[in-house]
Structures are given as C-alpha cells and as structure tokens.
Design goal:
The complex is a heterodimer of chains A (480) and B (327). With 480 residues, chain A is mainly alpha-helical. Helices cover 68% and strands 4% of the residues of chain A. The chains are: A mainly alpha (480), B mainly alpha (327). Chains A and B meet through helix 11, helix 12, helix 16, helix 17 and helix 18 of A and helix 1, helix 7, helix 8, helix 9 and helix 12 of B.
C-alpha cells in the first residue's frame, strides 16, 4: 500500500530541535569543560535517572512525530497512475497502536473491563433483558468472562511482567559486562553495581530500567486485548490518548522556549554590549511585556490567530494540519510573550562580560562589535540559555493545561494533558464516577513533569555552582 | 523619596502607553472592527447597517490609527486608538463590547472586592505557611527531614494546580460534603465557599514557594554574621528567627511582591472552577466572548498594578533594610 509523508510544522520544528540537540551533544564531546559539566549531571543519580525517563517519553514523542497519509484503494473512475490519499494523517505511533485505535467501544468502560458501563436492552436466550453489554473489543477473546477474566488477567500480567523483567535482566547483564574492565571481571562489576561502588550511579539507572520495563511489559501485554486504562466517552482507548498527549507536551515545552531564544538572546546581548539608548529601548520593551499579565497577552494573541484561521479555512488540506499549525502558533506566541526573563538574565551577564579582559583585549585588537558579540559573548551566555530552557520545560507543560482550560490552548481535536483534564472535570462529577482518564493523565503528567524538574535541577546544579550548595544532602549530620 | 516616586510615576505612564499600544496593535492587525461587530451581534446574516450601527454605538466608526479626512491635530485625535487610549489613561473604562454592554468600571469595582476576599487571605497565609515550612527545613538542614521535605516540595510543584482542584473538590465537596462544590455568597457565608479554594491554592503553590525560600534562607545561613551570632551563644531558633529571617526578607519581598497584582486581579483558574464571581472569572468570560473592551481594560489594569506593586516593593525595601535609600 502506498503512502505519502506529511511534514507538519511542529514535526519539522521538533526534528530540527532534536538535530540541534545532537549537534550540541557533538560539541559537548569535543569540549573539555562542557564534557566535565555534563559528567556531573551523569553522576547525579536523581538527574540521570530523570534523564532516562525523559528519553523514554521523548522516544514516544519522536515516534509520534513522523506523519504519513495512506493511499486509498483505486476507485473505478480513477485514471491510471493517479493516487488519492486518505484525509486522515497518521503517525508512526498510530501505526504501532493500530490495534488499539481500532478497538473502539461505544462509550465509557472501566479499565480492564469486559462489560460496558451503562445497561442496555439485550437479547439473551430469546428474551429481552436489561443488563450491562459485553464490550466489542475489550476482553472479546474470553468465552465466559465471569470465570476466565481474573485468571486471564493474572496470566497476561505475569507474562508481561516476566518479559519486562527478563529484558531488564539482560540490560543489567550488559551493564556488568560493559564495566568488566574497570572492575576486574563481569561478576566483580556486578557486585560493585549492587553495592553502589561504581563511578556512575549504575545501580540507580538499573532500578529505573527495571521499573520501566516491568510497567511497560505489563501494559504492553494487557493492551492488546484489554483497555488497560479504560475508554472515554466516545469509546476511545484512554491509554492511546495519553500516549498521544506526550507529543503535545513535548512540542509545547520545547518549541516555546526555542521560540524565545532568538529574541531574548539577541536583544539581551545587544542591550548589554552597546548600553546607552539601545539598552533603554530593550529595557522598555521587556518591561512592557512583563507588566502585562501573561495569560491575558497569550489569550489576546491566540484569539487573533483564531480569527485569522477561521477567515481562511482554505489554507489547510486536513484537520490535522490545521490543529498542528494552531499548536505551532501557540508555541510562537508563548515564545514571543515570554522572552523577558531570559533577556534580562542575558543582558545582565553581558554587562558583566563586556568589562572582562578577554573582551577588552578583543576590542583593543580591533575586532568588530558583531564578531565580539558572536564569538566571545554568545558562547559565554549559553549556560543561561540552557538552564532557562530546561527549567522552563516543565513549567510550560503545566502551563499548557491551564491555557487549555481557559480555552486558549491546544485545539480540542489534538489530544493533550490539558484537554484530558478539562474533560475529566465533568467526568469526576458523574455518577458512577469516571476516574480513569483523570488518573491516566495525572500519572503520565506527573511522571513527565517530575522527571523534567529533577533533570533541570541536576543541570542547574552542574552549570551554576552557586546553586549546588542549596541541595539537600541526605544522611549527613547537622553541623553543630 | 518624593522625586523618586514622581520619576517612577512618569516611567509608569510611559509603560502604560506602550502596553496600550501593544494591545491595540495585537487586536487590530488581524481583527477589523467589522469582524468584531459580526461576532458580537451574532447570528448568520448580519447586514452592513447593523454593523455600522454597532460600530457607531461603541465608537468604532472612525479610522483606527490615522484619520486622513480630518485636519490638523484631529488627524491623530479623531481615531479609535486616540479616543480609547485617552479615556483608558483617565481611568474611564467605558462599556463592554458585548450585546449587554455592561459598565466595565462598575463591574471591575464590585468584582475586585470578591477577588480580594479570596486572594488577600490567601496571600497572607501563603507567606506565613511557606516561610514557616521552609524555616523548619532550614532548621533541620542536612538531615533526613530536610531531604524528604525537599522531595515533597519537588513532588508538589510537579503537580498541576488543576489536579489539586479536581481532587480537592471531589474529596471535600463530593465525598466528605464539608463545603459546597462551587458558588459564592456575600457576607459571612462567603467563608464556606472560599475555604476550599484558599486551602487548595495554598497547597498548589506551597512546593515551589517553600523551595525558593529555603534556598534564600540557606544562602543567608552561610554568612559570617550567622556564625558570629552562634559564637556569642544564641540558640539556633533565635539565630534563624531574629537574624536569618530578617536578612532574607529582601528576596522574600521581591518574590512575594510579584504576586501582588494577582491579589487584585484574582486567579483565573480558581475563580472559574469554584464559580466565584471575581475578576479572574470576568476575564475568562471576556476571552470566551472575544470582548476587546474588557480584555484591554484588564491588560491595562494588570500592568498598572504591576507597576504599582514594583514601587511598593521598593518602598518595602527601605522598611526592612535601613541601608536602602531611594533616590
């Protein structure tokens, strides 16, 4: 079957961001001081484990960022060689989860359930009875669910858990094998890992891997035949929705900070380097921006975009593209309205840097101002950029939920944590209570934000030595 | 002090003009007054006469930025931008753009009272609770209590405020039936309605605030005067409360002061979730109804409050630290 790749705006931006990250990784490998600082992050158990979890989330987001449209089967009146494509845009993740996407029920159902939530009129043995209907797909393989359900569930979970743990064990063995040189034999390395006597916190990494593999194994083995997290009002699998929300969170978290960078860094450096009226103008601009309540400014911009898009429905071929451009513009808006903080930091740092000897020397040698700013000042403010980017990531994910609630966030057709919480608000006041989409959104969002926060703390500690003194240390006695 | 305040005032007016210009540009680069009229009148078929009438009633029937037909200074003054900006700077907020066309000034003053009832106790409680909690962590620094306290803070700040609200409403209103789900009554009854939002809002911000204050206190604890205070035999409690707390007040005022505008503007999320008719809920309604007049007024009010609170913060510095002089 043919298909055509679709490059959505956010896909392009996300992949560009990942490429930039790879480029940064290459740079880190080449430069001694950067490598030393990142080694500190690696040696920090909390930060590196959080980074591992973030990588898992990122993998899901990346999988969800390759979009394509399938070719439709040729219809009779179609000219040869002409191909029509489906109007639905799919991602690789949709391809992986095709089975779950097809498992669509009619309405709510509880996690792992085999019965629907609402009673219906059913024909049973030629008689009309009012009872809970069997689900169309959830546990459809069971012939007599009342007796088989529990055993099947246990068996499948155990199988999934076993596979997950086996995978984790393989990874652990690989780790021990990789460390055999430094520790004199794989067995010794394994003992050192268990006693946490390794250079890197390998034990913590392995614990994270075991937890991730166990949870993932159970989920994967259950989601083929059950709705592991239940279904929502229209009968869609909640797990799929939650997984698809991860990409939205990443798009908002990464692209918004990316969008702030050009304005914030260039204006900050210009203001700090030239001082005088340039400085005054830049300060005036960012005071205006920071004095306006952020939500209002964003709301005004989003409404503006909304009107423009409504006026030109012909700009987009598919609904997905439209929703995507809206998210992309939302990121731009978040960036354009949120550059004041970083700009202030960069300006202050530049003011400090321009008085230092190496800049003075460059000026004395007659190096031009643009070149000084690009070669001597920019690399020295990059740590600020990095710290704000990682610190801003989790804030933006939380902010997305609020914005979507206010009605200026992500398009409702695109799944996002904010949208799920928004729906959950009504579901939590239903009777019987529908708690699973709320719980799923909660679990995934907290895991993602917590990981992002811990990672950001580690990065900040490594790059800003002053912050390291403020870490809580465990087990040390209070100095008297 | 007097000249300082005057200078800040002039600076503030300049910024307000900039803010006003910015909101105007934002709104009218894509939206024309015709679009706004069509949206606010509603319905499918809107005739040009209706639109013209709507525009005339609300003063949108002039050119936006530059009136080429007028002569002299009227070229600039007989425009929507000029008339709206001048009235706004004179604190005449006018009427809303929606069909009901309510008096914004009246609405703002009644709703601000409601918002204050929620936000002022919250602001004070927040300050007291966060400082107490972070001081406790600092007292037990480098111990398990400190470690797990910080873990708790990080966990709490990783949870969206929406989760606190939904879970809190479910627990206290639906399950335990302690307080009403949402709504508002004036007078003493308001306590029943405001208790839950205040507690939940407090919880949702406790993590980030305490962690921040803890960092500020720890920075002070490492300084020489603290060692001197200990050396002369003061107990740890006295050192923390009398020396560290007082010296850490400056950064605390800076960070707490940034919340001051929101004490008056109210919280968007909490007010609309709990059905409290404050300014935050007002803004959400205005955003939903694309009411430019209200949004612009609130933007203006927000930045005016921001500027005022910055001046207040500076004045507060002189109270807590006699070395600070405003000039």
């Amino acid at each position: 079957m043919g298909f055509t790749f679709v490059l959505l705006w956010t896909d392009a931006a996300l992949w560009a961001m990942l490429l930039a990250l790879a480029g940064y990784g290459y740079r880190v490998g080449r430069q001694e001081h950067l490598r030393a600082t990142w080694a500190k992050v690696l040696r920090d158990p909390a930060a590196s484990c959080a980074g591992l979890v973030l990588l898992l989330f990122l993998a899901v987001a990346a999988l969800d960022s390759v979009h394509y449209r399938l070719a439709l089967p040729a219809s009779p009146g179609q000219a040869a060689g002409q191909v029509f494509y489906d109007s639905r845009t799919l991602s690789l993740l949709d391809g992986v989860l095709a089975r779950q996407l097809a498992m669509r029920e009619t309405s709510y159902s509880e996690p792992l359930a085999y019965l629907g939530m609402f009673k219906e009129n059913l024909f049973r043995d030629g008689e009309m009875v009012r009872d809970f209907p069997r689900l169309l797909h959830g546990a459809a393989h069971l012939t007599d669910p009342r007796t088989q359900w529990q055993a099947d569930l246990l068996q499948r979970s155990a199988a999934g858990l076993g596979t997950g743990l086996a995978l984790a064990a393989a990874i652990a063995a690989l780790a021990a094998w990789a460390l055999r040189r430094q520790h004199g034999g794989a067995l010794r390395a394994w003992r050192d890992i268990l006693a946490n006597r390794t250079h890197h916190p390998v034990r913590a990494w392995l614990i994270t891997t075991v937890i991730a593999c166990a949870l993932g194994g159970v989920l994967v083995s259950l989601m083929g035949v059950y709705h592991a997290f239940g279904t929502d009002r229209t009968g869609n699998d909640v797990l799929v929705k939650t997984l698809k929300s991860i990409r939205t969170a990443f798009v908002i978290g990464m692209l918004s900070t990316l969008a702030t960078l050009p304005i914030a860094v260039s204006l900050g450096i210009l203001a700090g380097y030239f001082k005088g009226w340039v400085d005054e103008a830049v300060q005036y601009l960012y005071t205006i921006l920071s004095s306006v309540p952020n939500v209002l400014l964003i709301a005004a911009c989003v409404l503006m975009v909304q009107v423009a898009l409504d006026k030109h429905p012909d700009w987009f071929e598919t609904g997905a593209e439209r929703a995507d451009v809206k998210v992309f513009l939302l990121c731009l808006i978040l960036g354009v309205t949120g550059w004041a903080t970083l700009c202030r930091l960069v300006r202050a740092e530049t003011l400090k840097l321009r008085e230092l000897e190496f800049v003075q020397a460059a000026t004395a040698f007659g190096v031009s101002a643009p070149r000084i700013m690009a070669r001597h000042i920019l690399p020295n403010v990059m740590h600020l950029v990095l710290i704000t980017t990682v610190l801003g990531f989790s804030d933006l994910i939380l902010y997305e939920a609020v914005l979507t609630y206010v009605g200026v966030g992500v398009d409702p057709s695109m799944s996002s944590f904010g949208g799920m919480i928004n729906l959950a608000r009504a579901e939590m006041s239903r009777d019987p209570l529908v708690w699973w989409s709320f719980a799923a959104a909660f679990a995934f969002m907290v895991a993602l934000v917590l990981a992002a926060n811990l990672f950001a703390d580690g990065v900040r500690d490594a790059f800003d030595p002053r912050a390291r003194a403020l870490r809580p240390r465990r087990g040390l006695r209070r100095p008297l | 002090m007097g000249s300082y305040l005057l200078r800040r005032l002039a600076h503030g007016v300049l910024i307000l003009i900039g803010v006003n210009l910015l909101t105007f540009l934002l709104f009218f680069t894509v939206n024309t007054p015709d679009d706004m009229a069509r949206l606010n009148i509603g319905g499918k078929r809107v005739t040009q006469e209706q639109i013209d009438k709507w525009k005339a009633e609300r003063g949108y029937d002039k050119p936006l930025y530059w009136n080429a037909e007028a002569s002299g200074t009227a070229k600039a003054t007989r425009t929507v931008l000029w008339e709206r900006s001048v009235s706004l700077l004179l604190l005449d907020f006018g009427r809303s753009d929606s069909a009901r066309s309510t008096d914004i000034g009246h609405e703002v003053s009644t709703r601000m009272g409601v918002s204050l009832q929620l936000a002022l106790p919250l602001f004070l409680l927040q300050l007291v609770v966060s400082i107490a909690f972070s001081l406790m962590l600092v007292f037990f620094r480098h111990s398990r209590i400190d470690f797990w306290g910080v873990v708790l803070c990080v966990l709490m700040l990783s949870i969206s405020s929406l989760f606190y609200i939904i879970v809190g409403q479910f627990l206290f209103s639906r399950w335990l039936r302690l307080v009403p789900m949402s709504g508002y009554e004036s007078g003493l009854d308001a306590v029943r309605f405001l208790a839950l939002p205040i507690v939940l809002s407090l919880l949702s911000r406790l993590g980030s605030e305490s962690r921040l204050y803890r960092a500020m206190f720890l920075e002070e604890v490492g300084k020489d005067y603290v060692r001197t205070a200990r050396a002369k035999g003061l107990s740890e409690q006295v050192v923390l409360l009398r020396h560290v707390l007082r010296n850490a007040l400056i950064p605390i005022i800076t960070s707490a002061g940034s919340y001051l505008p929101y004490v008056f503007l109210g919280s968007l999320v909490f007010e609309s979730f709990f059905g409290i008719p404050g300014l935050g809920a007002f803004v959400i309604e205005a955003i939903g109804g694309q009411d430019f007049a209200i949004v612009r007024t609130m933007v203006f009010l927000g930045s005016a409050l921001y500027i005022a609170s910055n001046v207040l913060i500076d004045v507060a510095y002189t109270w807590v630290d006699p070395r600070v002089r405003l000039a």
